[in-house]
Write a structure and sequence with these properties.
This protein is of the alpha/beta class. It has one domain: Aldolase class I (TIM Barrel). The protein is 39% helix and 16% strand.
């Protein structure tokens, strides 16, 4: 049985190292992957005893004249194990599937686990969104070697279900269908064995009330945004995940 992965994506929060440390200590759990802003990675790492450390982004070159970028080796040397790549907010800023593929490949080469995000902006009655996810996933993993494919984590985050202003959260049925669909695509790209080893997470308006539904539907874990900034709610999410 795979243990559930609960990823806390703090985004551009909190505003001070003191608050970041307090939040990390409150959320330090063996099922958690804490992803603070780059500037707090070192301080958070020092205060984690059980949770694993993740980063919100990365650059694909190891070193060079790339002002403002953070390399995979820098993250690895800081204690990072997981890296979110291709998050919908990064894609909104212009990140392409090609860039996501470079980042995912660079992570794997450095021994880091990429959490590759995919998701459609809207759903249509003609189900064209399925082809969109298929192409997005294929393009985002084009540089990933078959031998390392099983280490990839895929996070399905439907853009229409993300954020406080989302019209609604995805249903457990929609989550389950996409987990099956994504695993089938991974099987087609790599192999049945690799697809079986890969973890598939769900992200999008995740809160304590719907955790059980998403995990029961087949998700191997969750990518948590807003509620990862609330230790009480995040703790409830972790409690449900650990009970399964």
């Amino acid at each position: 049985m795979k243990s559930k992965l609960i990823v806390a994506n703090w985004k551009t929060n909190p505003l001070s190292e003191k608050e970041a440390v307090r939040l990390a200590q409150a959320e330090d759990n063996e099922n958690a992957i804490i992803c603070p802003p780059f500037i707090f990675l070192s301080a958070v790492k020092k205060n984690l005893k059980h949770a694993q450390l993740g980063a919100q982004d990365v650059f694909w070159e190891k070193s060079g004249p790339y002002t403002g970028e953070i390399s995979t080796d820098m993250l690895k040397n800081s204690g990072v194990k997981f890296v979110i790549v291709g998050h919908s907010k990064r894609r909104t800023l212009g990140e392409t599937d090609e860039i996501v593929s470079k980042k995912a490949s660079a992570c794997l080469k450095s021994g880091l686990v990429p959490i590759v995000c995919v998701g459609e902006r809207e759903r249509d009655n003609g189900h064209t969104y399925l082809n969109f996810i298929k192409q997005q996933l294929k393009s985002s993993l084009v540089g990933v070697p078959r031998a390392l494919a099983g280490k990839v984590v895929v996070a399905y985050e439907p853009v229409w279900a993300i954020g406080r202003k989302a019209a609604r959260a995805a249903t457990s049925e929609e989550c389950g269908e996409m987990v099956i669909f994504i695993r089938k695509i991974l099987s087609d790209i790599f192999s049945v064995q690799s697809a079986a080893r890969a973890r598939i997470l769900y992200g999008g308006s995740v809160e304590p009330q719907n955790v059980n539904a998403y995990l029961t539907a087949g998700a191997d874990g969750l990518l948590v945004g807003h509620d990862s900034l609330d230790p009480k709610k995040f703790g409830e999410i972790l409690k449900v995940a650990q009970s399964m």
